[in-house]
Batch of 2 targets.
Target 1
Amino acid sequence: MSTKVFVNLPTTDLERSKAFYTGLGCDISPEFTDENAACVVWSEDIYFMVLKREFFATFTDKPIADPNESVQVSVSFSQDSREAVDAIIAKGLAAGGTEPKPAQDYGFMYSRDLDDPDGNSLGFLYMSEEAVEKGPEAYMAEQGSAS
């Protein structure tokens, strides 16, 4: 059995969060969704548990950070192309998300960030297969000698 990843995210508006994530193309698992939480299916192995802040607080004794004020974690997803990165950002913006900073193009990697309506940070990136295989420095050195 492969490892399943569950990312827990606080929300102040569960219905708005469900609409945002379905706007990105995710499904909601009804078996693990109720009035306190929604199970967002990102892929066969990756899930978001979007939890009302009060319910989220029952799982920890630590304070729950306001994701609009501080970042505790940013979850990033690789995409198959720069165009795929741009497309998912467009979906997220249309679904009520915000882009906290401009796209970042490092030559070997193209990256854009998206905050959900609660301020939780998601990243989307494309990295060329050659950069993945050789590493960023070797890839960029080759690109520099090719120009």
Note: The mean pLDDT is 92.
Target 2
Amino acid sequence: MSKNGKNTAGILAGLLAGAAAGVILGMLYAPEEGKETRKKIKNKAEDLKDQAKNKYGEVSEKVKDQYSNISSTFKETASSVAHTVKDGYDKYKDQIVSKTADVVKDVETELNDLKK
């Protein structure tokens, strides 16, 4: 996961934890019967759990999509670079072979001239 994804997940977890703590404290100090307060806390905790699952699913889907996009882009770029390198290699290989043959002929001519 990218650094941005980790930051987003951390911020999301912090916000949910803060919201849960605020709701619980508010309910505990409300002038209601303990049984009713516990019921409200339980319901709110379930709501927060559902919200967290939904947000996790959304964030997870976004991360998967971003990974897929980055992966595709990387594969396309790597393929393009490989083709460019191969084309350059083929082009210059023929030139080098030709130049090498010319140098070999020149050396052979010089050697033959020295032997005379």
Note: The chain has one domain: 33-114.
